[in-house]
Automatic annotation (TrEMBL):
InterPro entries: Aromatic_CoA_ox/epox, Ferritin-like, Ferritin-like_SF, PaaA, PaaA_PaaC. It comes from Streptomyces roseicoloratus. Gene3D superfamilies: 1.20.1260.10. Transmembrane segments: none annotated. Residues 306-339 have a biased composition (Basic and acidic residues). This is 1,2-phenylacetyl-CoA epoxidase subunit PaaA. Pfam families: PaaA_PaaC. Residues 305-339 are annotated as: Disordered. It comes from the Bacteria. PANTHER family: 1,2-PHENYLACETYL-COA EPOXIDASE, SUBUNIT A (PTHR30458:SF2), PHENYLACETIC ACID DEGRADATION PROTEIN PAA (PTHR30458).
Length: 339
C-alpha cells in the first residue's frame, strides 16, 4: 500500500468510526465497494422478484378495496427495487450489469420468494411476517455507513411499515371470520413462519460477511440478533391475531428476556439458495421473460432520450456548459430520491 493510499484509508476509517456517512465521491476500500454492491444488488433483486408471489393474487383479491391495496403494495416493491438499483449505480455498477447477473444466476435474491402463494391468506402472511422481518432487518440499515443506501432505506422502511400493517389487518379479518377462513389464515402462517426466520441469513457462526460488514457499519446487528428481535415482536402479535406459530419450543424465557425458539432447518435454507426451492425456476424464468418483453420500452426510452439530447446540442451553442449543468442536476436528483 502506498503512503497516499494509507492516508486515504485512514480518513475512511476515521469517518466510519465517527459515524459519518461515506458518499459516492469519497475514497473507499475496494472490498467495501464490492461488499455494498453485493448486498444492495441482492436486496434490489429481492424487491423486484418479490413482486411475483403477491401479484399472483391481484386478479383474485376478495374485494375492490383489497385489490387496490395489493396493487399499490406491489408497485411500492418495484419502486424499492429502483431506489436500490440507483444506490448501486452510485458505486459505479450499472443496472444492466446487475440485472444480467440476476438473470444468469450469478447474484442472489432472498430465499423467501422461492415459496408459493397458495391461498389469499398468503398475501396477509407475507405482509405480516415477510414485511415484518424485512422491517426488522432494514430499520438498522437506515444508519448504514454508506449514505445513498441509508437514505434509500428511510423511505423503504416507511412503506414497509404500511405493508406490514395491511398484512396484519388482512390476517386478522380472516382469523375472526368463518371457521374455514380462520383455518386458511393458520395454514398460511404455518407455511411462512420458518422461511421468514431464514430471511435473516445463516447463523452468526456460518455468516461469511457479517463480521466485516459490521466493522464497516454496513450492518449494525448480526443475523441472529435480528432474528431474535423479530421472534420477540411476532410471538405476542400472533396471540393478538388468535393464531399460533408452528413451533412447540416457542416460549418466553424470563431469564433471557427473550422468546426461546426451536431449531431452524438450515438444510432447507441452503437447498433453496442452491436453486432447489419450490419456485426458484418459475421466479427466474418469469423475470427473464418480463425483461425480454420490456425490451421495446427500454429501446423507446433510449431513443427518446437520444432525441432529447440531440435537440439540446443543436439549440445550444454552449454545449459543454449545458452538459455540465445536466450532470449536476442528475446527481442532485439522485440525492433527492434518496439514492
Ligand atoms: N436469501 O454472510 P451472510 C425484501 C446469502 S426483504 C438468499 O450472512 P450477509 C422484500 C448471502 O448473500 C429481503 N441468500 O450474508 C420484503 C451470502 O451469499 P453470497 C431482502 C441469503 O449479506 C417484502 C451467504 O448467504 N432484504 O426485499 O451478511 C416484500 C452468507 O450469508 C440469505 C435484504 O436483502 C437469504 N435470506 O447477510 C418485498 C436486506 N441470507 O452473497 C421485498 C439487506 C444470506 O456470499 N440484506 N444469504 O453469495 C441484508 O441485510 C443481508 O444481506 C442479509 C444476509 C441479512 C440478507
Amino acid at each position: 500500500m502506498t503512503a497516499s493510499q494509507a492516508a486515504l484509508e485512514a480518513v475512511f476509517d476515521a469517518a466510519v468510526a465517527a459515524d459519518e456517512r461515506i458518499e459516492p465521491r469519497d475514497w473507499m476500500p475496494d472490498a467495501y465497494r464490492a461488499g455494498l454492491v453485493r448486498q444492495i444488488a441482492q436486496h434490489a433483486h429481492s424487491e423486484i422478484i418479490g413482486m411475483q408471489p403477491e401479484a399472483n393474487w391481484i386478479t383474485r383479491a376478495p374485494s375492490l378495496r383489497r385489490k387496490a391495496i395489493l396493487m399499490a403494495k406491489v408497485q411500492d416493491e418495484a419502486g424499492h427495487g429502483l431506489y436500490l438499483y440507483s444506490a448501486a449505480e452510485t458505486l459505479g455498477t450499472s443496472r444492466d450489469e446487475l440485472l444480467d447477473k440476476l438473470h444468469s444466476g450469478r447474484q442472489k435474491y432472498s430465499s423467501i420468494f422461492n415459496y408459493p402463494t397458495l391461498t389469499w391468506a398468503d398475501v396477509g402472511a407475507i405482509g405480516w411476517l415477510v414485511d415484518g422481518a424485512a422491517i426488522t432487518n432494514q430499520v438498522p440499515l437506515c444508519r448504514c455507513s454508506y449514505g445513498p443506501y441509508a437514505r434509500a432505506m428511510v423511505r423503504v422502511c416507511k412503506e414497509e411499515s404500511f405493508h406490514q400493517r395491511q398484512g396484519y389487518e388482512a390476517l386478522l379479518a380472516l382469523s375472526r371470520g368463518t371457521e374455514a377462513q380462520h383455518a386458511m389464515a393458520q395454514d398460511a402462517v404455518d407455511r411462512w413462519w420458518w422461511p421468514s426466520l431464514m430471511m435473516f441469513g445463516p447463523p452468526d457462526d456460518e455468516s461469511t460477511h457479517s463480521a466485516q460488514a459490521m466493522a464497516w457499519k454496513i450492518k449494525r446487528h448480526s443475523n441472529d440478533e435480528l432474528r431474535q428481535r423479530f421472534v420477540d415482536i411476532a410471538a405476542p402479535q400472533a396471540e393478538s391475531l388468535g393464531l399460533t406459530l408452528p413451533d412447540p419450543d416457542l416460549k418466553w424465557n424470563e431469564e433471557r428476556g427473550h422468546y426461546d425458539f426451536g431449531p431452524i432447518d438450515w438444510d432447507e435454507f441452503w437447498n433453496v439458495l442452491k436453486g432447489n426451492g419450490p419456485c426458484n425456476e418459475q421466479r427466474l424464468s418469469k423475470r427473464r421473460k418480463a425483461h425480454e418483453d420490456g425490451a421495446w420500452v427500454r429501446e423507446a426510452a433510449a431513443a427518446y432520450a437520444g432525441k432529447h439530447d440531440g435537440r439540446h446540442g443543436n439549440d445550444n451553442h454552449g454545449r459543454d456548459d449545458a452538459h455540465g449543468r445536466h450532470d449536476e442536476q442528475h446527481t442532485h436528483t439522485h440525492g433527492e430520491a434518496g439514492a
